[in-house]
Each structure stands twice: as structure tokens, then as C-alpha cells.
Give the backbone structure.
Amino acid sequence: MVHVSFYRNYGKTFKKPRRPYEKERLDAELRLVGSFGLRCKRELWRVQYALSRIRNAARDLLTLDEKDPRRIFEGQALLRRMFRYGLLEATQNKLDYVLALTVESFLERRLQTVVFKAGLAKSIHHARVLIKQRHIRVGRQIVNIPSFLVRVDAQNHVGVSLTSSLTQTGRPGRVKRKAQKAAAKKSAGGADEDDED
Amino acid sequence: MASEDASPSLDILGARSRFLVESSVHFLFHFLILFIFLLLSVREPEGFFVWNGPPFSNGQPIVKLERVPCTNVRFSEDGSRLMVMKSDSVISIYDCDNFKEIRSFQVPNVAAADLSPCGTYIQTFQKSSTPQEKNVILWKTETGEAVYQLFQKNMTKTTWPSIRFSSDEAVACRMATNEIQFFDTTDFPKGILYRLRVPGVAAFEVSKAPGSHVAVFVPESKGSPASVQIYACGKDLQSQPLARRSFFRCSTVQLNWNRGSTGLLAVAQSDVDKTNQSYYGESKLNYLTTDGTHEGLVPLRKEGPVHDVQWSYSGSEFAVVYGFMPASATIFNKKCRPILELGSGPYNTVRWNPKGKFLCLAGFGNLPGDMAFWDYVDGKQLGTTRAECSVTSEWSPDGRYFMTATTAPRLQIDNGIKIFHHNGSLFFKKMFDKLFQAEWKPVSPDKFGDISELIKSVGSLKVAETKSQGSGSASRKAAPSNPTATKPAAYRPPHAKQAAAIQAELLGESPTPEMSKNALRNKKKREKQKEKKAAEAAAAGI
């Protein structure tokens, strides 16, 4: 691992589980990895770590007094972030609802699942491939990252990118260009042969 | 001058009788208007006839056109012509002002026929086997001559009618393989004016009013997604689509233009649900605007299929009924922002009132037929009722009545029509032995006054009637209570009837032991005081 004291912007984003070979945990994790099309267990542990930090913050704020300025300010900020990312409905505007969040609610907001649910891909794994191969845009920006957390206002603007080879407007892909070149060369070469004859 | 002459004569009458005269004139005026414009066509096994629309005098509709034997009847979209398929090979065209037959066509083995929106052309489809026989013929109704012919192998839902017109008949186009062909509507024999090349096009829809854009659907091919694209209809504006939306996982698309041709709603349906939530497949609602401001999904709060989506008659808002049952309904404006939530319930259709302001949410088909009438401008519900086993439902062109009909090929018993007021109260009901079709004659909603005026005139109508006649006809007055289905009594098995009686006795006696001692004491005190007062009053009376 990198020597941490020289680098400021470095921290761990996941936590390995305490017991390595627990049957129920392994089954549950594998089910989630399969249904959301994740690459490895670490992607799931990353989400669990983020969720546990958010829950700790909410729990810590709930121990403070109701009118404490820090609780009001930070609580509102936390709730606003939850609304913005679609993790909580607008009706659930109390800190207690943050404690009831689950890993699935985070995994539902990844760009990979949003692309699949919006009908832009044939399966969840097809969605990951499309995203990594730069066919998907959010708004006007091409997004290459399957774990991009989609905001609520951006959710309806997820579409196929304009320069993608899947659409008529974009440049055709590498294989198609190669085939076109070969076909052009063959017709030109054929003409040459006729001339020579 | 006229008013000066009129007023002295009216001054002679007292105030009350003047009101009577004025209101009866008002009533006659509106009565005449309604009389002229609203018409109903009803088709039975023996033939079809046309009725004068509501309000009905004496509770029965007046027959405008006597029974004519036929197999199918259709009005043109603007309501000026009526097409009647009399038998397998004869098609007649009637003029809707006086219901006289103006032209008759002999077309052997005709399988389908369609009128253009203004009634100027009629296209017919005959079964044909060889490409030499042109089996789709376009006739001009005025002259009766065939102006264009082409060959089409078979007729499916997406390919009939072959030639589509816009509402004012300015644009006519047809879909061929990989292209859309445009014709000149004034001069069909000239042939194809220009072509729009769209490789792989499977379905298209011309915008109705005005006909400035055309929406095409290209299904999924090997690697590339399915897409819905909007093109402009001019000759030189063809190269690039104005708006496009691509998606996978869809097999058919329903395209829905609004009035004004600024927005397109596309419901993409697939037969197989890849998310494994529904056996019937999934559907998604996309919204595209012609100026490119919005191209994307409509944000729906609930998961599940999109049951129905309809644009309002003004074209600036649309209503969607979506979700697994009980479905939610929402009204969006043309920027795709929700403006009103209509709650949830067993609904799967929505019908806008042509004069604006009202909306009917209904559950027909496999649902029991609950209908909810809403005033969406004020955001409140006007009434709910039930119309069991209805097949078709339609608002009248003036917006005052809502007619539901139970028709024969779908349901063989309980055929009939029911007409409701705009708030859900039943106005008229007629049962038939067998009914094939019942529809209003389409009239442009602009010809009628605003709906609040018409409702007021109904009020003045009632006043004049009661004053002049003294007893109104039963069907004219609105039914005072909504006929809701009475809840059937709970079934009790024979031995339980006795048990129920015993329970009632027990419960009847229990209240007294339940009262506490203090409560009993207070009750006795109160009764004594009452007796004392009564005795004093009696003594004072004497």
C-alpha cells in the first residue's frame, strides 16, 4: 500500500467483513452482486461502508438536542443530499428515516441500474458494457462510470450519447469501419483487375 | 332601433312574466343549438340509425335517420361525411347535414375502407394475390373516380390505413420499405412528391393538427437500439431528425401527437419483462418535443405498466394512468412537470372533456367499471359512479355528457348505452337486444359555447319548464343520487342465523352493565331534574 503520510487525498473506501466464511452473509452478498451486476464483492463493501458512515452521522445528530444549531444545520444538509440522490422520498423528511436506509436503495441509484430500468439496455450486464464503452450520456455529458450515483433531476435525462456508434448520427464503430474499408478496397481492386485485363 | 321597439312591449308585462319570456327565449335558443349539433349513431344487427342527441324530450331520443341495413358505419373525423358499408361490395357515402346518400361505390371483396379526415377521399383494401392487381384504391368522394392505386401485400394494424392524412388534409403520406412517401393532396395522379429515407421504418404517425411533423419508429436490429424519431414534413427539411429517443427492450410503440403538433408521447411496449415483475411485459412512456427541449422518460412515481395516456384537447397537458393495480393517475403539463395527482384506484382509462375543465377516470375492460369525474382546474372530484361491462366510452362533442356503451362482439348480453352528466349522475339509459356500435357524431368543440354557459342554460331550462308546465319529464331532471351498487348482505349459514340473533340480544343488554356506578348515579339525577321541571311547567301551565 502507498505510504499514507505523504499523500493527503487518500483514504480507504471499503471495509472487509469481520468473519470471512459466514454462510448467510456470503449468500446475501452474492445475491446482491448478481442482481445489480457488480464486478466484485469490494463494490458491495464500498456501498456498505458509505451507508454505515451516513448512518453514524445521523445517529450522532439524533443524540443532540432537538434545537441544537448543529443538529438542525447538518441534519438538513444530510437530508437534502438524500433527497437529491433519490434515496429518500420528499415525504420522509426526518432524520430517523436515514437510519432506515438499506444497501439496496443505494445500489438502485447507480447509473448501471438506472440505465437498465430505463430500458436503454437489454440486461444489467449489457448496461455495464454500454456505460464503459461510452454510449450513455447524462444530460449532455458522456458518463463512463457504472457506479455514478444518478441525481433525481438528472434521472430523466439519461440517454444514448449523440456520438455513439449505436445511433445513425454517430461515427460507425471500429469493426464496421474496417469492413467498409475492406469492401471499398475490394471493389476498387476489382476495377483495377478489370482494367488490367 | 329594434331594442327600442321591443322594450315598450316588454314593459307592459310584469317583472316575473318578463323573466319567463326571456328565459324561455334563452332556453329555445340553446335548445335549438343543441338540437342541431349533437347526434348519435347506433348500429344494431339489422342496421344503423341516427338519433338526435341529448337533451331528449319526453325521455326518448328522436330518430333523425331511419334504419339502414349495413355492416359497418364510420363518421369522418370532422363529422361532415358518413361512410356506410352496406354489404360485401357496396360502400355509400352520406352527407351529414341532411343525411342523404351522395355517392355509392362498387368495390368487390372489399376487406376494409377508411375515410379521410375531411371526407374528400376514401381508400379501400381488397384481397389480392398478384402484384399486378393494385388492391388499395383511393377514390375521390365527390366525383367517384379512382385517383390512385397501389399494391399492398397484407393489412396489419401498423400498415392500415395505407395513406395517412393530417386533419386539414394538407399532408398525405404512406410508408414503404425504408422510406416514407409524400403525396400532393390536391393532385394524387401526379404520384409521389418526395420521399423521406428512414432505413428500417416499421410504424409512423403524422401529426394531426397541423400536419407539420411525422414521427417514425425503427425497431431493434442486431446491435442497435430501437428508436423513435421526429422529422419535419417539408421537402427541404428532411435530412436530420428534429428529435430522437433510443431504447432497447421494446417490440411495439404507440405514438400520440397533441393538437398543435409540439409534443409526442410514445408508449414503448415489450412482450417479455426482463425485470421479472410482470407476466404481461412492460411499458415505458417517453416524451419528445419538436423543438428538442425535452427528450426523455416521463417521471412516473409508481412501477408498473402504463395503462392509458391521453393529451387534453388544448394540447398543453396530458394525463397518464400507470402502475400495478390500484393504478395512480397524474396530469403533467407540456414541460413534463406534474401539475395534479389524481390519487389511485382501480382505473385504466382516462377521457378528457373536449371543452376543458373536466376529466373522467375509469376502469373498463377487466376492471369493474368504476368511474371518477374530476374537475382538474380546481383539483376536486365531482362524483363517482359505476358502469359495469362497458366497452366504449366517449364524451359528447359539447362536453356535457359522457356516454358508455356495451357492444356486441365483446359482450353478448347486457348490451346498451348509458349517458351520464359531467358530474357522474345518470341521465339516460337504453338497453338493446344486441348493439354493435354507438358513437357521437364528431363536431369540432369550438362550435359550442363554454361549458359553464351550457350548464347555466340547463338551469334556466329547468326553471322555464317548471314554471310553464308544472311537472318536468322524469328523464330531463338529473337523477338526484348516484346509483352506486348496493353492498350485498353478508352471507350467514343457517346455524349462524340463530347465533346472530343471540349475539344481538347479548350486545343489546350489555350497554347497561358497562356504565360505571357514577355514570348511573348521574343519569338518575338528570332524569329526576327533568321530571321536576316538567312538573313545574305543567303546574305553571295550569
About this structure: Chain A touches chain B at residues 116-123, 126, 155-160, 166-167, 169 (CB under 8 Å).
